[in-house]
Write a structure and sequence with these properties.
Elements (H helix, E strand, L loop, with lengths): L2 E5 L4 H17 L4 E7 L13 E6 L7 H16 L4 E5 L4 H11 L5 E3 L4 H8 L12 H11 L21 E6 L11 H12 L4 E5 L6 H10 L3 E3 L6 H10 L2 E5 L2 H8 L4 E4 L19 E2 L22 H4 L3 H12 L3
Parallel strand pairs: 1-2, 1-4, 2-3, 4-5, 6-7, 6-9, 7-8, 9-10, 10-11
Length: about 325
Amino acid sequence: MAATLVIRLSSLGDVAIAIPVLYSVAQKYPDDHFLFLTKSAWTSLFVNPPSNLTIFPADTNGKHKGITGIIRLLRELSRLFGSKRIKVADLHGVIRSFFVDCYFRLQGNPVAVIDKGRAEKQKLVRQKNKIMQPLKTSLERYCEVFEKLGYDSSLRFTGLFSEKPAKEQILIGIAPFARHKGKTYPLEQMEEVVYRLSEMQNVEIIFLGSKEESKLLEQWAEKYSNTRSIAGRMNLQEDLFLMNQMDLIVSMDSANMHLASLVNTPVISIWGATHPYAGFYGFNQNESNIVQTDLPCRPCSIFGDKPCLRGDYACLKQINPEMILDKIKNCLSYG
């Protein structure tokens, strides 16, 4: 019986992307044990995990913070594995995970680290001689790490829940926020989408967001009929359960797209400074549901964190609400 330490600490979306391959590999190798090291905040993501998968929560803001925290983490992991020979699958490739890699490599354990394809991604976002071609997805890069360790990483993951509940009303989730401005559709234009959707028959709209985003979403819920907000009220597992009941989610290039993908809910995804070619598109999502503009400066950023070169965020503002509404109606076969 082999043991494998798998590392992906952040972000939420990247941890969500890892679940299909992690579950698939664990299911194929029931005699092996897999320990997944991630931030404690993400542990509730792991719904119905394989019996040979254990989640190890890292408190990166507390006892596992900084150099002393990493040393403490290594001691805890050492106690778990003892003298057993293990494999290390580093799906993160950052300084913290490199310390863990080095520690176990020095003990003679095989270590495989993700190739993030930084050079390829730079060619995609540069403004001169931009090379517009699809790159490997994050999921494919995760699979490569497991394959380096001798695992068959072909996917058998079908979703966190076995089935979708039957219901009469159409449920549409709207997650209008993203971490960076370059990935956030202008709120006044999104409000127009909300207004138009609220006028549709047999449709209920549910707003998704964090506690910090809840004030605006509560205002929308009071203003428009057939809407309600759950922003900041639920934990990750409850969010996933509700997403599983939805017929469709409108999301930015954000974690909500990846959470919806884990429960097989279609996503109308809106892309601005970033681009699906960078490899962060949702697992098993239909590419016909992508909403984006064709501008020569796009993409200008892998993560959407850079200021707009034009200064006007045309990549987002030129997406008119009608484009999004058309995608929604086509996806739902509505009207």
